[in-house]
Write a structure and sequence with these properties.
single chain, about 475 residues, alpha/beta, Rossmann fold, UDP-N-acetylmuramoyl-L-alanine:D-glutamate ligase, 2 domains, twelve-stranded mixed beta sheet, 15 helices, 19 strands, about 35% helix
């Protein structure tokens, strides 16, 4: 698990560290040296390095990296995008130290995009030290042109971004006008929340962390990032003498004549997610794995009796995959909402809620919307959700008093009185119909096993990503389908 900071909490941490323990220039020195060390690990001395430095502290980090690389025998050129006299504070000190090095490297000031284009043709590595976490407005003019030159296709050089790719918003991951496409991003001091969200997560390349002596507290952390290989730290293990009764009983209300496959996929997800027993409450549109217990609605059976029969002994409910939007499903949702059992709501059940509201719940609730469903639930535009996914997930959790799993690149899990958890992964194999149904089954299985909703959501999301990675090993992501995740 990696703690995530926002632009504001990173600024506060930086100020606190400088005030209490370490001068700003020393923090900059540490940052610059670790950037240089990363280059040293990848390139032999004598290699050509171009440092492109902005006028702020991020630029200062780059200037110190240039000094160390020069000392270590690299052919270093420094392109300062600002005039020499405009560098101030710690960045000014870093520039002066570079100028005082014996046989100092070539330093150019107020460099234009045309000059950058020429320099790029004669370099092996580029250090992007243009903008850091302080950027809040779109990149324009010459700076935008410089970034466009760095991103030219094809390129023969390796790009290392200091702290985050210049142009990426540290809070949301949005591109502020234009952003550097890095091969490696070296996060300094702490990871920024925006680097777990699209499109920022697609621009960072390889992601590495570097400690520079800053120690975030719990108050600084705004979210937590997780990778699939960390699943063992949050999932449970089966006891050697376990039996099916130890692993929960899940009742699934899903499917319709129009979408029978969605029900089957969520049922298989529940089975692969570890549920000890799965019942399928359906209305005659049955399409299910053989391990599932069918609970069809009888010809003259009252719905309330059917719900009671299908839910008898259940430890969790799953509602919505493969449904349609109609009065019958609304009535069914209202009846199911009276249960005190944990209930996961997905797919068309979410669309019903967006139209009519969430019926009063008497038990824990988990909502699993994709971005368009989230927009409907919030009554806003899809672009608003995608612009700041972390905030959107938080708002959903508060509005519906639920744990929310906002699906997509960098899935966000919010609610339950905790800071958000984020699966810091882009997995193209999941861009296929039905994979969300599998996920709802996997999370519901963990609910049925007795996990608290937040933990169940996190474990289900990570297991789902793990299954997608496994499915992608032997075939192209284009060829992976939802059933591959549970085969």
């Amino acid at each position: 698990m990696t703690p995530l900071l926002s632009r504001a909490t990173m600024r506060d941490l930086d100020a606190r560290t400088i005030r209490e323990t370490t001068r700003g220039i020393m923090l900059m020195e540490r940052a610059g040296r670790v950037i240089a060390q990363v280059i040293r690990e990848r390139m032999v001395p004598g290699s050509r390095v171009l440092v492109i430095a902005g006028g702020g502290n991020n630029g200062g980090d780059g200037l110190i990296a240039a000094r160390w690389l020069h000392v270590w025998g690299y052919e270093v050129r420094v392109a300062c995008l600002r005039l020499e006299q405009t560098y101030a504070g710690d960045a000014r000190l870093a520039l002066m130290q570079l100028q005082q090095v014996r046989s100092s490297p070539s330093i150019a000031y107020g460099v234009s995009s045309e000059e950058i284009a020429t320099m790029l043709r004669h370099t092996d590595t580029v250090i992007d030290a243009i903008f850091g976490t302080g950027l809040t407005t779109p990149v324009r003019g010459s700076d935008a042109q410089v970034i466009a030159q760095i991103n030219q296709h094809p390129r023969s050089y390796y790009v290392v971004s200091a702290d985050l790719p210049s142009g990426v918003c540290a809070d949301t991951g949005q591109v502020l006008g234009v952003a550097v496409r890095a091969d490696l991003t070296l996060m300094l001091g702490a990871c920024k929340a925006g680097l777990t969200q699209s499109p920022g997560i697609m621009l960072i390349g390889e992601m590495r962390m570097a400690s520079i002596g800053m120690n975030p507290t719990n108050d600084d952390v705004v979210a937590r990032a997780w990778l699939p290989n960390e699943i063992a730290s949050v999932d449970t293990k089966r006891a050697p003498d376990a039996h099916k009764g130890d692993h929960g009983r899940l009742a699934v209300f899903a499917g319709s004549a129009k979408y029978p496959g969605a029900a089957c996929l969520c049922l298989r997800g529940a089975l692969r997610g570890g549920a000890g027993l799965v019942r399928f409450a359906h209305e005659g549109h049955a399409h299910m794995p053989e391990e599932v217990i069918p609970m069809p609605l009888g010809d003259d059976e009252e719905v309330e009796l059917w719900i009671a029969r299908a839910s008898e002994g259940a430890t969790a409910l799953l509602v919505g995959p493969g449904w349609s939007i109609d009065d019958t499903r609304w009535s069914l949702l209202c009846s199911l909402s009276k249960s005190t059992l944990p209930m996961l709501i997905d797919a068309d059940a979410l669309n019903i809620i967006a139209e009519r509201g969430l019926p009063t719940r008497f038990g824990p609730t988990v909502l699993t919307p994709h971005p368009r469903e989230a927009a409907r639930l919030l009554g806003c535009d899809l672009k608003e959700v995608q612009h700041d996914r972390i905030t959107a997930a938080r708002e959903l959790a508060v509005r519906y008093d639920a744990v929310v799993v906002l699906k997509g690149a960098g899935t966000v899990i919010a609610g339950g009185g905790e800071i958000p958890d984020i699966a810091a992964v882009c997995e193209p194999a999941l861009a296929s119909a039905g994979t969300g149904d599998v996920l709802s089954g996997m999370i519901a299985a963990k609910l049925a096993m007795g996990m608290q909703p937040r933990r169940a959501a996190l474990v289900g999301v990570l297991r789902h990503l793990e299954a997608a990675e496994h499915a992608s090993k032997n075939k192209s992501p284009h060829a992976v389908i939802a059933s591959d995740l549970v085969s």
